[in-house]
Here is the input.
Amino acid sequence: MKKGIIIFLLCSLLTLSIFFARAQEKGVEALPPEPSEEEVPAFGGEENMEALPPKLFEEKSPAVEEEVKPVEPSEAPAEESAVEKPQEVKEALSGKRVLPEEAIPEGMELVLKAYEVKMGDCLHEIANRYYDDPSLWRNIWAYNKYIKNPHWIFPGDDLIIPTYRKVMEKKPQEPEVKLEELETGIEYERDIFIAPPDFGFDGCIAGVKEKKFMTAYGDTVFIDLGKSQQVKPKTRYGIYREKEEVIHPRTGEVMGIMVEKIGVLEVTSDIEENSSTAVIIDSRKPIEIGDSIKLQAKIEEKETEE
Here is the structure.
């Protein structure tokens, strides 16, 4: 009996000691760690501190703004002052094309023609078409210096083509540089031509019926011609746009004007005293107010009556 009691007490003491031991272990883990006396940097030691760039530990001094001294015109770089603007930029701003001055062979005269670049064209092919020699493409480029790179021309570019022809009998004071003679009605067939200064148009487009981003085929416009100018229904007018002036290289006089045909219009039955309504029946480019018009063709009276 006594032995059983002693064994029971020993087992109880052993169980209690184990219980208190586990409780003590849990209590120690729950406590926060005591701070160490030595401060350890967040970067993980002095070795890592040395590996970082010194700029991170240097105090930034306030930036001192340097006074910028304005550059006087006399102090400008010589390279900038020596640069000249290209000829083509000046011509584009002034709306003029100054022809290059060249020595014309004796017994020859220079005749200027106009050509509009088409899809697939290059100066070699155009030179072969006019001179039967593609190597003469530089002659064309010399008269169209607004083209910066002769190997890159685009559809719609307007070219002046210099051509030569023999002169059998030259009259006194006759100019050596001439424009291509335009036969009556040739402007109806050409997309572009050089018109003489006295080339006259019949009128212009005075307005549009609807304000749109672009006026073109099928749109209604108003012209400044009417009954006073004997305008009749179904009369057709070519639409033209005046471009750069062609300037003689020596005299500086205006030899002609580059003119581009951009469309055709047909007059409707709405005709006033000095104005008429018309419909655009063909357009190569957007039509603008102020574009010139010139009588192109008339439909026969039978068709007009219908």
